[in-house]
Amino acid sequence: MVSICLLGGAGEIGGNKILLYGGEGAVFLDFGLNLKKKREYAVGYGFERINRVLRNYLFVGILPMISGVYREDLALDEKILNGARNFSIDCCIISHGHLDHYGSLAFLKAETPIAVSKSMKALIEHSIETSGRTGIDREIFIYKDRRREELKKKVKIEEGLDEVERPLIIFEEGREIGKVPFQVLPIPVDHSIPATFGFRIETGKSSIAYTSDIRFHGVVSKYTEDFIEKTRGVDFLLIEGTRINDSTTRSEDDVKNEVIMETLKKSGKLVSTLVSSLDIDRVRTMIEAAEECGRIPVLSSRIYHLIKTLYEVESKVKLPKLENVKVYFEKRSIIDEGYFLGSTYFRGWLKKIYESLLNTDMLIKPEEISKDQDKYFLIFNSHQYVFELAEIQPIPGSLFIESTSEPHDEEQEIEWEKIENWINLLRLDSRWIHASGHANREDLLKIIREIKPKKVIPIHTENPREFKRLLEKEDIKVEVIQEGEEVKLS
Question: 254: which residues sit within 8 A by CB, 6+ positions away?
Answer without folding.
Answer: 435
